[in-house]
From TrEMBL:
Membrane topology summary: Multi-pass membrane protein
Domain Outer membrane protein beta-barrel: 286-719
Full protein name: Outer membrane receptor proteins, mostly Fe transport
Signal peptide stretch: 1-18
Length: 743
């Protein structure tokens, strides 16, 4: 996804601060006269959804509110997307949230929608945002009240999928004079069930595997945020986040056929637990009365995941070559990150805004993987797959952004981010590498408010995507002894160039045309091939045995380009009885690249390995859409019906053609004072699952069906207590936020 793009920078002037003040006054006037038309508009580099006057904003939680926000969708109840494709980074009051993905979703589900003033959707984030690749930003702006007191939320959920999965959470907020504290705690247990149908081969060989995976989990998570207002210009804050996940006795049970003959049964038993602790100290100085300020952070992150597994294959025929085999793995990962940053926001009396900052991240990872073969109850170390991998990474970043209005109709924002990365990796006693690179990442946004009904804007940004730390750990995860995923410590960072043209009509209808180009694109690539090595036959005589394999290797493969068009609307009808949020996404993609060798393969004396080249060369058109409806069933505004539908057409991706996906969701909500009761059914017809078919030019194929039992019945009860007008403590951006997304 990459070509060269040339842009010209422009010079801007205007009155941004005055316009912001005017917008605030406008919101207050709307609330004062109780106009019920919800506000959805384009302003500068973002879309703004004013939920304070929205008919669906009461009696729900922030996660459900986000799903009803234009351009945002969720088809699984566990993640959010912008325009159906871009991953999401969530900010609260312009501060990046300081927690991992699962904890963030639980926090959003536990935050009452009444606390929200507006939601800002930034499809192409500026240089000041710590994002990667083509990630978009959701900035949640909380209502600002300064009453002393306390409030909180109690929440209980029970999900019935293949298994029953209960969860509960509590949040508590306290404000007294100069002190503010907010905290949350959640716990739950759930078991994921997945059914697999795997097949691969060519015209001469066919391998099929059928089975399931049961993955039980117990989870504890929480955070504490303390803010002390030293005086009107100085504030000190401290944040602690933790998360613990335990997954013991996770079973993968797969039965294998070769050329139609039953061969063996593979059972993988895994125990894993993950611990995540992060600390952040924040200091903020307001330097004038019009919003200028300096913020600084120092942070520490400790991440530890321990995984132990035993993989056994039991013969199911009388072939003497098909014997019992077993291996065991220990795959620990420890990450230590130390980070600091300082940011300066300067506003001028003429409405210009300068943003500038410096950041530093120092990360050490320790991955001491051990793999053993079990032969006649004797443990024999596999030296080729036993690796102690040490990885160190230092990132120094600096950014500068300038925003200004040239006239009442024309405004713009220009900036750049510079990142210097120094990294080194070593597989002890085997190999090592150094990888140093510098990136200058420009950004430009132009916004033209044609009149009150029409708004047009253009954005350009460039970003990089560094490999996640677990992707670098050179370990394997086995389906069968010859079918497994393989991580790769030699993956290079990818560079993204993103462009968008956005148009909005009457604060209700919008169009977004985007073009994204990626260089050194990477993904998990299915490589097929053979290994020939010496063994002994039944009589003890040496023979050469050839075995076929399928490895999913994380590696760079080439470039890709994506052209997208999103058309949507957000509007209320019949005196706000019916609220709609519709969008359709059209995409055209060009992928090109080749992987002709396994970058993780290490030559073994006496063995010969042959890899079939994997070719990625296609052009593809796809379509997806979301239809969200909220219908008020009573004049008292205490009964609501939700009807949502998602459709995704066939789409080609690096590993093959992903089949049609669709989901029909139904929800019923009842509000009783401070109580909210919700019943929801996700994917009523069990149609949202992954089916991938991949065929190579040489005739080899690889097909995967992964059915996760997506139909879920969820019953939720929420109780809000205390002073609901209480202002929360400041949400603070952590210096190591960019690192957390890579754990």
């Amino acid at each position: 996804m990459k070509t060269q793009i040339f842009i010209a920078a422009l010079f801007f002037s205007g009155l941004a601060a005055a316009q912001q003040s005017k917008d605030t006054l406008k919101v207050k006037n709307i609330e004062a006269v109780n106009i019920k038309k919800q506000v959805f508009k384009k302003q500068s580099d973002r879309f703004i959804y004013d939920v304070a006057s929205s008919p669906i904003a009461k009696g729900t939680n922030t996660f459900n509110l986000l799903k009803q926000t234009p351009m945002i969708s969720s088809i699984d109840g566990k993640s959010l997307k912008i325009m159906g494709k871009s991953d999401v980074v969530v900010y609260i009051n312009n501060k990046k949230t300081n927690m991992d993905a699962e904890a963030l979703i639980e926090m959003l589900k536990g935050t009452p929608s009444e606390d929200i003033q507006k939601i800002e959707v930034i499809t192409t984030p500026g240089s000041e945002f710590q994002v990667e690749s083509n990630e978009g930003v959701i900035n949640i702006v909380m209502k600002k009240k300064k009453n002393d007191g306390y409030n909180g939320t109690l929440k209980m959920n029970n999900e019935q999928a293949y298994y029953n999965n209960p969860s509960a959470g509590v949040s508590f907020n306290f404000r007294k004079n100069k002190w503010s504290v907010n905290s949350n705690f959640n716990t739950g247990s759930w078991t994921d069930r997945e059914r697999y149908t795997l097949s691969n081969g060519d015209s001469t060989f066919r391998n099929e595997s059928l089975g399931y995976n049961d993955d039980p989990n117990k989870n504890l998570g929480g955070s504490v945020n303390i803010d002390y207002e030293i005086n009107k210009n100085h504030s000190l804050g401290f944040t602690y986040n933790m998360r613990y996940n335990k997954s013991f006795n996770s079973i993968l049970d797969v039965t294998n056929w070769q050329n139609g003959t039953l061969v063996n049964r593979t059972i993988n038993n895994e125990n894993a637990q993950t611990r995540n602790h992060s600390f952040n100290l924040n200091y903020e100085i307001k330097t004038d009365s019009i919003g200028s300020k300096i913020t600084s952070n120092i942070s520490y992150l400790w991440f530890n995941r321990d995984k132990m597994s035993i993989n056994e294959s039991f013969p199911l025929n009388n072939d003497p070559k098909n014997e019992y085999s077993a291996l065991q793995q220990s795959v620990p990962q420890i990450i230590n990150n130390y980070a600091a940053n300082i940011d300066y926001l300067k506003k001028t009396s003429k409405g210009s805004t300068w943003l500038m900052g410096l950041s530093y991240n120092h990360t050490n990872t320790d991955n001491d993987t051990r793999q053993d073969d079990i032969v006649d109850n004797v443990i024999i170390n596999d030296v080729n797959q036993t690796n102690h991998f040490i990885y160190k990474e230092r990132i120094l970043g600096a950014y500068l952004t300038y925003e200004r209005k040239l006239s009442e109709k024309f405004s713009g924002k220009v900036g750049a981010r510079y990142e210097m990365t120094r990294s080194s990796g070593e597989i002890l006693d085997k190999t090592s590498f150094d990888r140093n690179y510098n990136n200058l990442l420009p950004y430009l946004n132009l916004n033209y408010a044609i009149n009150s009904d029409h708004n047009l804007s253009y954005s350009f940004s460039s970003r990089i995507r560094r490999p996640r730390f677990w992707e670098l750990n050179p370990s394997r995860t086995y389906f069968t002894p010859n079918n497994y995923t393989q991580n790769n410590p030699f993956v290079l960072a990818s560079k993204f160039y993103n462009q968008e043209i956005s148009y909005m009509y009457k604060n209700a209808f919008f169009a977004n045309l985007s073009f994204n180009y990626v260089e050194d694109a990477s993904n998990q690539i299915p490589l097929q091939g053979t290994v020939t090595k010496p063994e002994k036959d039944a009589n003890g005589n040496p023979v050469m045995v050839t075995t076929k394999f399928l490895r999913y290797i994380r590696t760079n493969y080439g470039n890709n380009k994506q052209l997208g068009l999103t058309l949507g609307m957000n509007k209320s009808w019949f005196k706000e009885i019916w609220t709609t949020n519709y969008s359709v996404n059209l995409g055209y993609s060009i992928y090109k690249g080749t992987v002709s060798e396994d970058p993780t393969s290490v030559p073994v004396p006496g063995q010969t390995e042959v890899v079939n080249p994997y070719v990625i060369d296609f052009k593809n058109f796809n379509i997806s859409g979301n239809i969200n409806n909220t219908i008020r069933l009573s004049s008292n505004k205490d009964w609501f019906l939700g009807l949502n539908y998602y459709y995704g057409s066939k789409v080609k991706i690096e590993s093959g053609t992903l089949g049609v996906r669709q989901s029909f969701d139904v929800s019923l909500k009842k509000i009783m004072g401070n109580w909210t009761f919700v019943a929801e059914v996700y994917d009523l017809f069990n149609q949202n699952f992954n089916s991938i078919q991949g065929v190579q030019p040489n005739g080899s194929y690889n097909n995967v069906v992964n059915f996760e039992y997506p139909r879920i019945l969820n019953i939720g009860v929420t109780y809000n207590f205390g002073n609901q007008k209480l202002k929360k403590a400041r949400e603070m951006k952590s210096a190591n936020d960019a690192i957390k997304s890579r754990t």
